[in-house]
């Protein structure tokens, strides 16, 4: 297929066009203060496959040497952008390891600022968690070491620096982790060859100044909505085309954006099989035509492209905080809430392989009759007074803004708890709990969505909603060092919607 035909048939653009712009780039009226978002246009480029880092085996441990660094990156055409990253100038390699291994992360900070690196989704000792209490000073090296007891799944590692998580992630400090079991996947018929039929799809959005620097703002409205951009990147690249070699592919969808929610579907509305969420495989595959991903959520899907067609993974507008109820009345701008393409697939040269026909994946543990140690009630609060409008805070849980010196909750190890999350605020909040993979019990008394029936570490609590989750507290005890729970709209986290708990 010629490139011109791909542009016409796959993307619906004018014949003869030499570049393709996503829908969000056509935001002439979208203003930042008194100036419009810079609107770049990107030619098609090859799918960006992140570097894979499987560590080095040293004395029976998988050792990863990670350097937090700054530099410049070519994200926009013909312009370099100052960025930060991990072992590279922007974003990070994909870290791959296996259950039951002992991993050792040696993290050296070569930034000119303090930073913390969190292993999102991992069950591990609190001292190794990489939260705000484990900040690394410039020039120092911090070592985190733990035995992997999590199930194989797609995970996240990213900045968790006190008051600076949002801007550091925006500049590039984050990447994907994978716990893998290739033998099990092969038996189940799940694609598992990295870069051949198993692809990370790390989704971020960014805004730029005309100079090529990132635009980042913490104005009242942008703090309430969380920072959104008009440039959509997959693995750090815009307008990219994946040309798979096999007709059955696994996409590890990963919402690594600061605040944007995604309603994902394919341009031809083809079905796909959801096989895993945040914490691992589902019991049975779910056949879906679309899926919602809030910030920090992940979903592994299997897509059959044996028809050889061209298609795009697309976002459908209307999901998230850009135009939710009161938000639109208070200045939310619908121009950023658009239908757009994330990346494209040209399957014209994909070799035929067997279809995915597995109906049973794993047996998840039965927690239906476990003893409940306690029920915690957490209310997600937004203050609408001067603190919200003009200050740095304004977000809280149970009326308390985050304080590093206050332990908000104390749990007992190796128990189960029910957490009732109540959101009376005017925005949706994706809530992440450290050191656990939980199950969602219900939403306002109704069953969770079909794609939420597996292990989760992040759950969206929508406006005027109560969500109950069943939380295993894990085996690790530490009466002094806490874990975090917080909104994963990173601007909300930095503004105070975070608490901390110890496990004793």
Quick synopsis:
With 504 residues, this protein is mostly beta strands. The protein folds into three domains: 3-45 and 188-346, Sandwich (Immunoglobulin-like), CATH 2.60.40; 47-179, Cupredoxins -  blue copper proteins (Immunoglobulin-like); 372-503, Sandwich (Immunoglobulin-like), CATH 2.60.40.420. The chain contains seven helices and 34 strands.
Write a structural description.
The chain is mainly beta and 504 residues long. Helix content is 9%, strand content 40%. The protein has a six-stranded mixed sheet with strand order 3-16-24-23-18-21. A six-stranded mixed sheet has the order 15-14-17-22-19-20, with no helix packed on it. The longest helix is centred in the first third of the chain and has 9 residues, at 3-11. The chain is globular, with a radius of gyration of 22 Å. The termini are far apart.
